[in-house]
Structure prediction request, 295 residues.
Amino acid sequence: MQSLMRWLAGRPLTTLHAWGALLGWLAYLLSPRYRKRLRSQVAAAGYGPAVRREAVREAGRMVAELPWLWLRPASRPLGALVQWQGEQVIDDAIAAGRGLVLLTPHLGCFEVTAQAFAERYGTRVALTAMYRPAHQAWLREMQRTARDRPGLVTVPASMAGVRQMIRSLRDGQAVGLLPDQVPPEGMGVWAPFFGQPAYTMTLAARLVQQTGAALIVVWAERLPGAAGYVLRVAPMAPPLPQHADSDEALQQASATAINQAMERLIAQRPGQYLWGYFRYKQPQRWAARAAGDGA
Prediction:
């Protein structure tokens, strides 16, 4: 499998995206469970068949471009393939000496955001990104080695990873999170997402509350014709609530605000959202959940 991944990594992005669109349709047609989930989540969010068809193609392109992104040598930067919009938000936070919490949903090419940030800002501000290791040993090792690049450090979704993120933010560095990824039990609250209750992480809000970091949303739109990506940056709007009657109420309000912000981002290009991701599943247990409540 690793040999196949390395062979795919050497194909042009135009070829990978063409194959990916076909792969997306094959997955959609051959998996009734995936097809049902994608269709129901697109419809529940208020989008129609055109968005559903685009989402099928874009999900396949997302998978097909992973070998190219993961195995591309650090000596071959993304460069002109990435256009930036709104990066002044990041520049201002760095100039003020603040840490940065970057929120990137499963929208567009979310793997590009971390690499592009590291290429542009890594010599000044390192980015620590949290990920969930794959179950397969070969894929887990590829994840680890492919994502560790100059200016980019990855940490697993564990208490050790959380502690490293806190240290990084207090040092004025950046961290990256997928705010629409279902966190382990005890690390989130139930909050509405497109009108349905979704278990939503509290980690992003707690990191901001504990360190005073700037909260920024960022995503990379995949351009047609494999022309590259537009990396869109904006401050969290409206800002997270500052006060509530209790910590529980504050985390509930913060999670709701983050979900609303993600909905607005997704509305910019709904066909590039990963609607096949099981956003409304029950969280898995995590032995360290009690310690996580203090993160």
